[in-house]
Amino acid sequence: MLIRIPEVLLSEEVAHCRTVLEAASWVDGKVTAGAQSREAKQNLQIPQNSEAARELGEIILRRLGTNPAFTSAALPLRVYPPLFNRYDEGMHFGTHIDNAIRPVPGVNLRVRTDLSGTLFLTAPEDYDGGELVIEDTYGEQRVKFSAGDMVLYPATSRHRVEAVTRGSRWCSFFWIQSMVRDGEARATLFDLDTAIQSLRAKSGESEEAVRLTGVYHNLLRRWAEV
Ligand SMILES: O=C(O)CCC(=O)C(=O)O
Ligand SMILES: [Fe+2]
């Protein structure tokens, strides 16, 4: 399941990110790649331990923490500190799969990558190419969202970033360990939660809405690891 989460960052926050990133130093993206993806990866990143990554990562984590769509879709237990990449003209990232386990630098913590996220920091009209292509069970999905929006997709999917042919594509990317490891169970909970929210919006509180909310929490209790 691939989900678009609109307006994770407001336009002034995107602008702030870009200003900070413009002044940051960029290094070869291979520094955080696994053995296979290292061969496929050709982009730039800012170092994980830089002040810029820390400051912007905190802004993004704060926003995600209060985003109802992200919370409902990801049911996050841990979010990997956001990283920042860019693809200038000719850069791309060939087909790969993200590492299953990522140690968080500087702390004794590992994140199991259940979900991958890309948060777009460049408006789609400012570059050509650069689509994130995700191999879903329904076929290939080509993703290029507005600046401030993010895509959340199963980290089990093979994916690639097409070569940029004009301009430069800037993003933040990170991984999420979900409280609900199984993707189908997570998708069922997301569907149920979405239906309950829409039922409440249409008809207010009702006996049925209360019962369904109970079902949601009882399933979550069965399936969640915290
Ligand atoms: O740039 C992107 O959207 C995805 C980056 C990616 O797949 C990765 O770093 O593993
Ligand atoms: Fe990836």
From TrEMBL:
Co-factor binding comment: Binds 1 Fe(2+) ion per subunit.
Sequence ranges assigned to domain Fe2OG dioxygenase in this UniProt record: 78-178
Known EC number: 1.14.11.-
Positions bound to Fe cation: 96, 98, 159
UniProt keyword list: Dioxygenase, Iron, Metal-binding, Oxidoreductase, Vitamin C
Residues that coordinate or bind 2-oxoglutarate: 169
Enzyme class: oxidoreductase
SUPFAM superfamilies cross-referenced by the UniProt entry: RmlC-like cupins
A Gene Ontology molecular function term of the record: 2-oxoglutarate-dependent dioxygenase activity
One BP annotation, GO: intracellular iron ion homeostasis
Matching SMART domains: P4Hc
InterPro entries linked to this entry: Oxoglu/Fe-dep_dioxygenase_dom, PKHD_C, PKHD_hydroxylase, Pro_4_hyd_alph, Pro_4_hyd_alph_FE2OG_OXY, RmlC_Cupin_sf
Co-factor requirement: L-ascorbate; Fe(2+)
Source species, domain of life: Bacteria
Pfam families according to UniProt: 2OG-FeII_Oxy_3 (PF13640), PKHD_C (PF18331)
Family matches, as NCBIfam families: PRK05467.1-2, PRK05467.1-3, PRK05467.1-4
UniProt name for this protein: PKHD-type hydroxylase
Lineage of the species this protein comes from: Bacteria, Pseudomonadati, Pseudomonadota, Alphaproteobacteria, Micropepsales
